[in-house]
Amino acid sequence: MSIAKKSLLLVLVLGLTFILTSCGIEEFDFTLNEDFSGSLVNVSLMADEQLEAETISNRHFIEDPKLKLLSDEKIERVVDNVKMVGDKRVFEFSHISDIPKMGFQVKEEDGIVTLSAPMYGAIEEAAEREEQKQLWNMLMKAGFKVSVAVNLPGKVLETNATEYNDNRVLWDLMNTDLLVQDTYWVKYKAEHIAPVDEQFVTEAAAYLQSQGILKGSDKGLELDKELNRVEGALIYARVIGLESEIEQFKNQPDPNYVMPFKDIPDWALSEISYLNYKGLINGISADMFGSKDYMTGDQLATLLLRAKGYSDAKGDFVWNKALQKAVEIGMLKEEDKAFIEKELGFTRGEMALLVSRYFQHK
Question: Which of 75, 143, 145, 282 is the most exposed place for a label (fewest CB within 10 A)?
Answer without folding.
Answer: 282
